[in-house]
Specification:
Length: about 425
């Protein structure tokens, strides 16, 4: 059986370790060639509360691989307001940027969080915001602050406030979870004794499409992350699999097996308007839309071995996209549509690969051997994927230049099928 059908069969044949609910832990290796040295002073807190804001902000920035966090405990002056900042002290530390802030209690048990991002060489302010929050919003506020810092210093939008989804098995149950981009605040979307596979985010980040085997066959569902309500999107004869949302969220590409082979169809998001897109004697699967909605990339063995192809979003003749290597599967496009990531088999190793579509230039990004399910971060900087370490599944991420690698894992657990969610306004 071709490996790229693992979304339907791998979870049926694999044995997962039972795990207790736990947040993902992150190990980071490498970083950009030129990292921005930044100092983050612990935020002033009411009473004797422990500062969690600066810790989360620093972890976010460090995880990007683009920043070098400087140790601040050796600096005598620890400012929390603009007038307290002594720029020469931070220049001596070789900081290019400084983050200061404080948390102040408000009426009704709420807090005011304020921060400043300062340019040390120019001795001026780059950003400053205040947030009126509930105690439970402290961590999400830290992610928002990290996003502001990232955008001001890098020049593009950060992804620290986004979410990821993935599947684990807990105590004999398959669990579809959503968590913050750093793996914290994990929430269960669905728990089932039967396999759950292929989660896919709607463009607005409010819904997930996924495949569940609870009816003893693969059926596609769409579930709201706001209300928790769900409905059957596709339960046609045979297998229903591999949902992928169109950029406008109005339709999904899906894979149906009416006859001997899997073919690609599109369907309205309410389950109406089924339309067949591919028609071949091969197995066509793993569809994904281009950001402009004009094309669908997919995996097919129509040439004898699995490769990536593309066809018009309305169906039609397919064009082969991958030519290097004899086995390329699981396509996913960057948000700007310029890059394609997929899994290549090379010398028996399945590795995350990046291809520049304009030039055809190919780069292998991962160093592991059993990678699957790559997907881009909303800003296109990182690629999230699943891999295997010591016989169990973990999540990993790699920057598109290959310099920064992360590993996200639950202690003793097995984590699969990740997908990085979109920005949510």
């Amino acid at each position: 059986m071709p490996r790229y059908l693992f979304r339907l069969w791998f979870l049926l044949l694999s044995v997962f370790c039972g795990i207790a609910h736990a947040e993902l832990t992150i190990d980071i290796v490498g970083g950009a060639a030129q990292q921005i040295p930044i100092a983050i002073v612990p935020f002033a807190q009411p009473g004797a509360q422990v500062d969690a804001l600066s810790t989360v902000i620093g972890a976010d920035l460090r995880r990007s691989g683009l920043f070098r966090l400087l140790e601040t405990r050796g600096v005598a002056n620890q400012p929390h307001d603009l007038e307290e900042v002594k720029y020469p002290e931070w220049a001596a530390l070789q900081a290019q940027a400084l983050v200061i802030g404080k948390v102040e209690p408000q009426a009704g048990g709420r807090f005011k969080v304020s921060f400043r991002l300062l340019d040390i060489p120019k001795q001026g302010s780059l950003a400053g915001l205040e947030y009126d929050i509930a105690p439970a919003q402290m961590r999400s506020t830290a992610h928002k602050i990290a996003d502001v810092i990232y955008e001001k210093l890098i020049g593009e939008r950060g992804v620290f406030s986004t979410r990821i989804t993935y599947i684990t098995k807990m105590a004999g149950r398959f669990v579809l979870q959503v968590a913050d981009a750093d793996g914290a605040n994990a929430q269960t979307v669905l728990s089932s004794k039967e396999p759950i596979i292929s989660p896919a985010w709607s463009p607005d980040g409010t819904r997930l499409a996924y495949v569940s085997f609870e009816k003893k066959k693969p059926v596609i569902y769409v579930q709201s992350l706001v209300s928790g309500q769900r409905y059957v999107l596709a339960n046609f004869k045979g297998n229903n699999s591999a949902p992928a949302w169109s950029p406008d969220g109005k339709r999904l590409a899906i894979v149906l097996t009416h006859g001997a082979n899997s073919q690609i169809y599109s369907i309205n998001s309410d389950g109406t308007g089924l339309q067949q897109l591919s028609s071949s004697q091969a197995i066509d699967t793993e569809p994904v839309w281009t950001p402009d909605g004009k094309w669908i990339y997919f995996t097919s063995d129509r040439g004898g071995s699995p490769q990536i192809y593309r066809m018009p979003a309305s169906g039609g003749d397919a064009q082969r996209v991958t030519f290097e290597g004899g086995y390329n599967v699981s396509p996913h496009l960057s948000p700007d549509g310029k890059l394609l990531t997929y899994v290549r088999r090379e010398e028996g190793r399945f590795r995350v690969t990046l291809q520049e579509l304009a030039s055809g230039q190919v780069q292998i990004l991962s160093e592991s051997a059993q990678d699957e399910s790559p997907s881009f971060a909303p800003n296109g900087r990182m690629i999230l994927y699943a891999t295997s370490v010591n016989g169990r599944g973990v999540l990993a991420a790699v920057s598109t230049d290959g310099r920064t690698r992360q590993r996200l894992s639950e202690a003793g657990g097995d984590v699969r099928e990740p997908a990085w969610g979109p920005w949510v306004n």
